[in-house]
Every structure is written in C-alpha cells, then in structure tokens.
Amino acid sequence: MLLNKIILEKNTRLCFSADFTTQKELFKWIDIIGPHICILKTHIDILEDFDDSFIKKILEKKEKYNFFILEDRKFADIGKTFEKQLFGGIYKIASWADIITIHGICSEGMLSYLTKLNNTKIPKVLIVSQMSSIGNIIDTMYSENCYKIAKKYNNLVIGFIAQNNFCNDKQFLILTPGININSKNEKDQNYRTPRDAINSGSDILIVGSAIYKNNPNCVFNYKIL
Ligand code: 5BU
C-alpha cells in the first residue's frame, strides 16, 4: 500500500468524507479538496444520481489528485452476500474502491471468505472497531477481538476505524471520524478536536461536514498536525 508515500508527498493526513447526494456536488468538492487529502471517503449508496459514468469520473479524479478511495460501506454479512455486495450490484465497489470498511462483528467470516476468492482486484480492508456515535455498544473486548482478527488477515487488513490507538501496533493504521475543531455533540455524533484525536494515536483524520459546511480554507485546520 503506497498510502504512506501519498501522505509524505502531499503532506496530509486528511481523509475527506464526501457525503454528498449528487455527482455534481461530489465532483465539485473533490476539485476543491482533492489536492489536500490522502484518502477520499465515499458512501456510494447515498448518491441519488449514480450511473456508470461515476466510476470513470472518480478514477480520473483519483489519478489527477493522487488519493486513495475508501468506500465506507461497513459490510457486515455472511461471505456470499458480502461478495455480491462488493463485486456486484450496480455499484461494483471493488472495481473502483482501494479500501473498504467492514464491521468487526462478522469480519472473521468475511475475511476468510475474501481470502479464498480468486479475484485479482480485492480492496484493502479497515475494520470498524470503535465508533464515534453516542450510545454505540462496542466495548473494549469487541475492539480487542477486531485486533485479533486483523492480525490473522493482515494481508488484507490495513487498519481500523477507531477513536484511539487501542491496539498500539504500528502495522495497522488508525482512521478517526467524528472530528471538528469545535468539539461538541451534534445529534448522535460525538465530535472531538483534531488535536485530541492525534494525541489519542490517530494516524488519519476523517473529516466531512466540518469542512464542507464551512469555508473550504478550513481544510488547513485538519490537514497536518
Ligand atoms: P462528519 O460530517 O465529519 O460527521 O462525517 C463523518 C463520516 O464518518 C460519515 O460519513 C460517517 O458515516 C462516518 N463515520 C462516523 O462518523 N463515525 C463512525 O464511527 C464511523 C463512520 Br465507523
């Protein structure tokens, strides 16, 4: 994975959470934020006007701005359903996403299934091992079990979506959502400051609305710390 190379070359630890519902808005923001990020995070199933042209366009932007694409699908199912969701349907996620998220709950089965596939284009995996949302029921044992599974499948798993570096293992990246320079609770989302996340051992900050609901220049508050 050449993510570290991008981080160094572009001097950024920012993953932009592009939670837009139209392609026009999505690609407009990619053109604004693209030069400042190492990862672009999508939620493909919230796009209202998805069509086949999307895949070509997103891959062109990736080439132009040099970032990885993370589809935050948070897969959580049995292997054969997961396979269809990842490779098939209308989105063909595996054909354009470099990285995907999967929930820890049944990640052992999904990773074992993925390992046995003869498919050449398999995205790398981040396991959701902690969440930012208020009232989520993940406990320390759950996170610890995610770590055990990640070690077993470290050919595919490159890290975790987590709030802190709970495993303290340099082979895995920690990507942290729920970031805003004004720490606050907003509905069920718990926002912590970039500094707080970095001090907790985060490698990459996932930031969405704190940037796109603001002046684009505020990207510099989150870019590198
Ligand atoms: P925000 O606009 O910066 O709040 O968006 C956060 C994004 O990160 C959004 O796409 C969520 O789906 C995603 N997310 C999160 O907020 N918290 C989590 O624990 C996980 C993902 Br996992």
Quick gist of this model?
Helices cover 32% and strands 20% of the residues. With 225 residues, the chain is α/β, with parallel strands linked by helices.
What does this structure look like?
The protein has 225 residues and is α/β, with parallel strands linked by helices. The protein is 32% helix and 20% strand. The protein is built from 8 helices and 10 strands. It has helices at 3-10, 23-33, 53-65, 79-87, 107-115, 140-152, 194-199, 209-212; strands at 14-17, 39-42, 68-75, 99-103, 124-128, 157-161, 173-176, 184-186, 189-191, 204-207. An 8-stranded parallel barrel has the order 1-2-3-4-5-6-7-10. A two-stranded antiparallel ribbon has the order 8-9. Helix 2 (23-33) links the parallel strand 1 (14-17) and strand 2. It is globular, with a radius of gyration of 17 Å. The mean pLDDT is 97.
Notable characteristics:
225 residues, eight-stranded parallel β-barrel, two-stranded antiparallel ribbon, globular, binds 5-bromo-uridine-5'-monophosphate
Write the layout of secondary structure elements.
Blueprint: H1 3-10, E1 14-17, H2 23-33, E2 39-42, H3 53-65, E3 68-75, H4 79-87, E4 99-103, H5 107-115, E5 124-128, H6 140-152, E6 157-161, E7 173-176, E8 184-186, E9 189-191, H7 194-199, E10 204-207, H8 209-212
Parallel strand pairs: 1-2, 1-10, 2-3, 3-4, 4-5, 5-6, 6-7, 7-10
Antiparallel strand pairs: 8-9
Helix pairs in contact: 2-3, 4-5
The structure holds 5-bromo-uridine-5'-monophosphate (5BU).
5-bromo-uridine-5'-monophosphate (5BU) is lined by residues 17, 19, 43, 72, 128, 131-133, 161, 177-178, 189, 206-210.
